[in-house]
Structure formats: structure tokens, C-alpha cells
Amino acid sequence: MASGAVRVVWSPEMLGYDFGPGHPMTSDRLDLTFRLAEQLGVLEGVSFIAPGVASDELLETVHEPAYVRAVREAAEHGTSDASRGLGTRDDPVFPHMHDAAARVVAGSVEAARAVWAGEASHAVNLSGGLHHAMPGAASGFCVYNDAAVAIRSMLDAGAERIAYVDIDAHHGDGVQAVFWDDPRVLTVSVHETGHVLFPGTGHARETGGPGGPGAAVNLALPSGTSDAGWLRAIDAVVPAAVREFAPQVLVTQHGCDSHVMDPLTHLRVSIDAQRLAASWLHDLAHEVSDGRWLALGGGGYAFIDVVPRAWTHVLGIAAHAPVDVAVAVPEPWRDVVRERYGRNGADRMGDGREPVLRPWSAGYDPADDVDRAIRATRLAAFPLLGLDPDLD
């Protein structure tokens, strides 16, 4: 049984992962989140991880040595390498980029090791969840893939089955690619369709390689999906797949760019639904993996109005100090927003919605776009997991 302690990755050095003015991946996302969480008291009693910089040896458990050298050289000299995704519009080179990205990896690995060793029941790294980075290239605001390195570290420590669930609006392509052919890792991604949104992958037919049939489960939702459809999709696929896989650890990615206010995506989900989904994943970890749960951040680019609230809810759930959506946002936090950005932030911790789940057992509607997406995923992936797509 894992300890009741909760580890949270946080130190001011984590703000170093920032691509510069005007880029969506601003470190203000983290700064505002931890200010809000502290003012709401959800960090009381947690233990903080202040990571150093991951070694090249650790990074190279997932990333190609030549790529790690390319990141170092780009950071030191300010040079671009488009063949490695460095110096692009999505991933511009910035000073100390290697150290900043490697620090995120170290945080996720230290958190993962604490969970696997039983030193903590839950651990959270909101700076992590950089799920697009590939073994040999940066992609989609992600330089190193902390989630994949953290999973690899637990496998190397003796874990035999790890489930990774990604509810970011973008497909978790990098993590899927690393473990595509590995039957020890189940990757489940619920995201906006790749026909519309970067990275263009994550279709239902992507179910794992020859060595790991069923290792990948992908649910691509139509643009415009809102709370009811999003929650129905998660409920219809994630619990059954994860339960059947029976992981020893659950790793989850909580990109909050599914929100209706996000400037880069086209889903219409509320804070209230995102909070509910995080609570489901927390409960699932207690059900299937003895509470061993590593929660990561990810996307989310409405950095004032959405990310701090969404991720404070993740922290509160992990710390067993959940924040009600009706709670007022503290005035000192709103003062910071007014002083920095010249406008008001949200005044409540929710969006005033009451998300209602219509479970898959209520019946399939072939005229509904969301139901058709769910059905496609269940038909493609469930038989490979030993599940009946019509019953489970």
C-alpha cells in the first residue's frame, strides 16, 4: 500500500520553461496556478519536489543522443535545427532551453519514482505532460517528453504494467510513439480529431504495433464537443480499458485546452467537467493501482481564465483537499491579475455549469457524431484488450 503522502513538483526554477513573449506556452500558466493553489490552501501538507536538471543518460532512455546534443547546441548558440524541430514557430530556441526542459523531465521522474517506491500515494508535475516530443525531435511546444521518460523510469525500476491516460485536446502522439510496440504500457488518448487539430494523428485505427496490439487506444472527438459528449466519451472508453489492463501505476495528462475559452482548440468543455474528469481518474487510480497516481499538466493556453483554476482543481484532488466549483477566487489573486494584465480574472472556481453524464449503457445513437466516434474506438481497440465493444 502506498504512503498517504503527496508530492508536488514546484520551484521557481520551473518557470524557466518559457518560449518567450507572445508564445502560448508562457510560464505565467504555472505562476498563476501555484499562486491560486497556495491562496486556497490546497498545498498545505504536500511535500515539494524541487528538481535539478536531468542527466543526458536519463534523457537518452527515450531520446536519441544526437537529439540531446542538438538541443544543447541550440540552447548554447541560439541556432536552429529544423530537422530536429528546433527553432520553429512552435519550438523557438531560447537561452537555457536544454536545462529548462531537462528540469521538467527530472521533476516527472522523481515524482514517478516516489509513487512507484511507495513513498507517495500521488504525485503531480503540472510543468510536465510535454506529450508531443519525439525521440529525435521537438514538437508542439515540447522539447523533451517527460511523461515517456517517467514511464520508462518506472519500467526500469520493475513495473510491469503502466497505463497512461491523456485528456488534452491534442493527441498524445509522442508518448504513444515511444510505447507503440510495448505491451507493458497502455496509452489512452481522448482528444479533438486530428482531421482538424495538430498533430493530425490519434485516429481510432491506431491501436499499437505488432508487439503490443491494443497498446494504444484513441478516441478522436468532433470539434465543438461540449461537456456532455466529452464526459460520455471518457466514461465510455477509459475506465473499461484501464480496468482490463490492470496497471500497477496510473499516469494521467491533464492538458486543459479542451476548455471552450482555449484559443488553440475547438472543444467546448467547462472547468466543471474538467474537474469531474480529474476526480474520476483519481478514483480510478485508487481502484486499479492501489492509489499509485502520477498526474501531469500539458496544454492549456487561456492562461489567466482557465489554466490556474483547472490545475488548482487537479492539485486539490491529488492532495485530497478538493475545491468546490462554487468557491470564490481569492481577491489577492485577482489583484495580481489586474495589476499584471489590466483586467479581472474569473471570480469563481467553476464556470457555473452542472455537467451531467449520460453513460454509454444508456444506448448508442448512430446519428450523434460523438457516439459514432466512441463506437469507432470501441470497435477498433476493445477486442484487442479482450473486451466486448457492445457490452463492456
Automatic annotation (TrEMBL):
Source organism of the structure: Cellulomonas rhizosphaerae
SUPFAM superfamilies membership: Arginase/deacetylase (SSF52768)
InterPro entries (UniProt xref): AcuC, HDACs, His_deacetylse_dom, His_deacetylse_dom_sf, Ureohydrolase_dom_sf
Family statement drawn from the similarity comment of this UniProt entry: Belongs to the histone deacetylase family.
UniProt entry keywords in alphabetical sequence: Acetoin catabolism
Name of this protein: Acetoin utilization protein AcuC
Pathway field: Ketone degradation; acetoin degradation
GO process terms (BP): acetoin catabolic process; epigenetic regulation of gene expression
Domain named Histone deacetylase: residues: 23-315
Gene Ontology molecular function: histone deacetylase activity
